[in-house]
Amino acid sequence: MSIKIPRGTQDILPGTVEKWQYIEEVAKDICRNFQYKEIRTPIFEHAELFTRGVGDTTDIVQKEMYTFKDRGDRDLSLRPEGTAAVVRSFVENKMFGHANQPVKLFYSGPMFRYERPQAGRYRQFVQFGVEALGSEDPAIDAEVISLAMSLYQAVGLKKLKLIVNSLGDNESRVAHREALIAHFKPRIEEFCTDCQTRLEKNPLRILDCKKDRNHELMATAPSILDYLNEESRSYFEKVQSYLSLMDVEFVVDPTLVRGLDYYNHTAFEIMSDAEGFGAITTLCGGGRYNGLVEEIGGPSTPGIGFALSIERLLAAVDAEEVELPVESKVDCYVVALGDQAKDYSVKIVSDLRKAGLSAERDYLDRKLKAQFKAADRVQARYVAVLGEEELSSGTINLKDMESGEQESIKISKLVEAIQER
Ligand code: HAM
């Protein structure tokens, strides 16, 4: 029996991997523009980081973590998300003491969640995310949101919908929480068992329940926006006015609650509006988490960020039929005929590569015609043909594959000739 790839994971093969590289480059460029610096943290962390950070009432912690014991009997988890790990590193490396504040970071790497795989949902997926720590200025909320939108737009996506909400500060949340409990409690037995436990632990999560979403109490549930205190309300208004100043279009959606426990104030998601995108339309999610640094053992520090998966971004690229500018063209394919020419082509290809050009040759002892076909397949811009005759006269025949023009030039001038053109 042959061994297959684990469920919910995928191989990214040549031909597709170029798209990934392109997206990663665009993301890095945008982070440079916005002045976010890369951080790399481990793939696994102490399980407790996520139980405390992400929250023990969340689906991620309750059902989806890959947690295992190592040989030293430690509980470790493959990271299900990036924020808790970045915050751990922020605290551990005392970045709160750095001169340059706020600390603006980005990351990109695999995350792991034991979810039911379906289109757009994997057990290993790659998140690109940013975190800005140390500022409570609503302008940084707007900056983080516009960074995410800029990335999608730079890639060429148009059918996007940005939804924003405020979950308020602690005081607002407590008031809203009480209103939610009062609203659901009298009829909670009509809800699923998950919602019944959520009622006391985290009633906000009831609003996000997939099973009970059509229950009549859902539509009439108290809106967080009616429970925001003055400070939270004016904070949220500022965020919205900054988004408008930057011409970032958005819709306020008071039912947006997010699936992780650490959020307060701003929460947002970006969805794809593209036809035929599939059932899961959320491309990106994020928000503010002013209590998380303290929860993980650091000094009280505000933070905000988002994460998006490259898998869903590429699904949107396909759904909108965006052509990404990826090409893997070969500058020069060296065709050699005869044993001596073949031997010498080793040097020619090597010289081209040393000069920074992409070069390829035949390794299967193919005939002239088949070598030209191979050159076509790799989309060679030039083909240099070396036969025994050329070799003895120190020349090589250079063919421009776009114009069809051919020219005999000195072998020693080949690199120069291609660079000039
Ligand atoms: P999240 O909403 O759990 O938030 O995930 C963010 C994004 O990761 C989703 O919008 C989606 O694009 C992608 N994603 C999540 N699960 C999967 C999956 N199973 N397969 C494919 N893609 C997936 C967070 O992770 C937060 N850490 C975001 C954040 C950063 N908040 C503040 N800073």
Automatic annotation (TrEMBL):
**Alphabetized UniProt keyword annotations:** Aminoacyl-tRNA synthetase, ATP-binding, Cytoplasm, Ligase, Nucleotide-binding, Protein biosynthesis
**How does the record describe its quaternary structure?**
Homodimer.
What is the designated name of this protein? Histidine--tRNA ligase
Gene Ontology annotations for the cellular component aspect, listed alphabetically:
cytoplasm
Tell whether Nucleotide-binding is among the UniProt keywords: yes
Entry similarity comment: Belongs to the class-II aminoacyl-tRNA synthetase family.
**Residue ranges of coiled coil:** none
Catalytic activity, as annotated? tRNA(His) + L-histidine + ATP = L-histidyl-tRNA(His) + AMP + diphosphate + H(+)
Q: Which organism is it from?
A: Bacillus coahuilensis p1.1.43
Q: Which CDD domains match?
A: HisRS-like_core, HisRS_anticodon
Q: Which domain of life is it from?
A: Bacteria
Give the UniProt record's GO annotations in the biological process aspect: histidyl-tRNA aminoacylation
Q: Name one Pfam family in it.
A: HGTP_anticodon
Q: Which HAMAP family does the record match to this protein?
A: His_tRNA_synth
- Drop me one GO molecular function for this one: ATP binding
Which EC number(s) are documented for this chain?
6.1.1.21
